[in-house]
Here is the input.
Amino acid sequence: MRTCRSIWTANLATAAALALVATTQAAESARLSAFRQGDQTSYAVSLAPEMANKEVDGVDVVVLFDTSASQQGAYRETALEALKTLVAGLRPTDRVQIVAVDLDARDVTTEFVAGNDAAVAKAIVTLGDQAPLGSTDIEAGLTAAISKFDSAKSANRAILYIGDGASMANLLDAPTMGPLVEKLRAARAPLSSYAIGPQVDAELLAVLANQSGGNLYVAEPIVWQDEAAGVDDARAREENVRNAQSVGKNLATWSRAAVAWPTKAQIPSELGQAYPTAFPPLRADRDTVIVGRTPAVISKPVEVQVTAAGNDGKPVDFAWTVQPEPASNDNAFLAAIVDGASRDGGLTLPTLGSAGLSEIARLMGAQADQLTVLAQQAVATGDREGALQIVEAVLRRDPGNVQARTVQTAIENAPAGNVAAASVPATTTTNAPALNAPAASAPAIGGDIILNKAVAAEPIPPAEPGLLERRGPDGTFLDEVEQERRAYSQMLQAEVTNTVIEARERMAAEPQIAIQELKLALENVRRAAELDAATRASLEDKLSIALREATRKASIKDELNRLRDEELAAVRDQKFLDAQLTRRIEREKQLMDRFNALMDERRFVEAEEVAAIVEEIDPNGVTPRVAALWARHKRHDYLQQVARSARHNAAWDTMYQIELSHIPFPDNPPIVYPDAPVWEELSKRRKDRYSSADLKSEGEAERRIYSALRQPLRAPLDFVAQPLSDVVSVLAEDFSIPIVIDTTALDAVASSPDVEVNFQISNVTLKSALELMLKSVGEGDLTYVVDNEVLMITTQEEAEKRLQVRVYPVADLVLPIIDLGGMGGGGMMGG
Here is the structure.
């Protein structure tokens, strides 16, 4: 783990087998594997929890997407494809928020939303457009994710990280990681990761997943285009997309797995000291591993009990009866794991389930095999003591290593001089110093492997010193260190030179990528502790010069791109104007065709309306103006022709009626009118019944209300500071008519039925009393109407909307009744 100085193995960062953690679970619910060495037993216990609910509902997921400089090209495309599949695999009850992480954490979506929300799709596009820059600060990203949960008050939580896990911007060691792990546990936010990048720190991600109840998937190697192997670019992309989609589905499944958070663990005393000292979370889809050491021989079943808080916060009790397996030399790697865990309380244990433990065993076995090969090479070069130290160290870690045991036997059975002495000429061996010469190296301390040895019986050819040089107290060790520094310096110089050459080749076409490569190289030079000051300054100057040149090239390219974009924009604008003009002309032609058709049909009004539309399209054109005038002129001419024809026809019809009126007719039978008294009596009766006629039907209730309004007051009205509603009740009771108040209309004028009435009157009709009283109330804008068989108190405005139309006969008003009784028989004129 580059960001946390590992005590396990530097090769764990490439452990692709950890990708199978999610699908690997122990067949039994509990196992105990042990290794006995001397008076100590090192062991590992695997505990698989049995949970009623394997998944939780409604999970808030924070996705930390690495946008640092290492995430570019095929790595960025594969990571984005995994993100797309991840959000597509979320359930409708789940919510997601995406955060970009490099030197700091930045929100890509502002809040938790559903996986199919448009904001998520927009966020993925934004991530694809973002340039990969800077380094990664894992701590800042996790802290930001925890704050998102706190702000949203999320119940069920999960953090998913997609990136290489290399926290170069903030190196995490045990003192730094401790508080970070406590934050994750306090927030109950399990961290699951997809490790992808040119160089991944799988160990750091495994440690964080182990301590927070998460999982880890280490990406398969990226498939690159290889013409020799028959893999083209499309096939390579297809394979990478397929792998990413598989990862995305796993991440979506991991986000909803149930996790129990231990609050109390009871480990039997027979197991001695167990690590991690803080019992790690229990996860439904994988087992949890603890390691430890005890002086006792574990031969009987042991009971392990854990009390944990479930996702709902309720306590859950777990209990396992662990049947120990016989101690085996195959588990010798456990001793080294426990040694490392004892240094920090198991905080940096990367034992992510049984699969993680098996991967550590595999890597430590591979390291033992490499050391055995080194021992064989030491034997071949005559370094018997160094080879023996290597073999002993290997056998301490792996007592069952047959190859190391064979080398040890060969060394112990060899002659006292050297295992290779039989093949060396006598003249040569006489000149070799004795085995116990003063130049012998110091003995090993604490079991460490020291590949130092005095001069062997057979001299080592100076031209080819071999892999293991002598490192005596005469300064040869310092010389070797200096030589290694020089070799590293030369290697780094060659790498910087190649980087500068490649950057200059890419500056013209891809200046930003060249700048990033130069920045990465410059950062590597600044972090290289083996460089001397002069070399470091030289390399920094070379990279700085190239970086300035790349920046200038980028500025030039940006300016050229800007000019090209302006030209393209101008061309697009011209094309748009041409298209707009073409559409306008075509539209105008269609409308004028419609205008001509309407004119032919003599639909002049509609034709003029079409001409007005054409004028809106072409306000400065002659055609629409002439069309409007022509339609109006033709309409007027047509109407005049119609009116002239109607006038001629009416004139002839009138003359015809005049001619008809000249036809005489007899006065038999004559028209006889009644006498004046009879006619007057008929008029009176007609007046009583038809003095006024309401055009709408009038019921008995309304006739009764109108009759009451015409009646005089039955008692004087004397109201002092009484509410209008009480006054209305008194009047309704006295005259036995329904009276209501239109509260809606009164509210519109800021009045109410509770308005005070101060009014005194007598000897008038109810109609007059109501009119005078309502004018005195408030602002004087109240009145009454008879409507819907009730007398309604309302406002003047509302009353105007309820006006009634009445019809009065006026014949008797304009035709006076004349008594012609004494003039009958024509006697008025005399005989």
About this structure: The first strand starts at residue 30 and ends at 37. DSSP finds 23 helices and 21 strands in the chain. The CA atoms of residues 58 and 94 lie 5 Å apart.
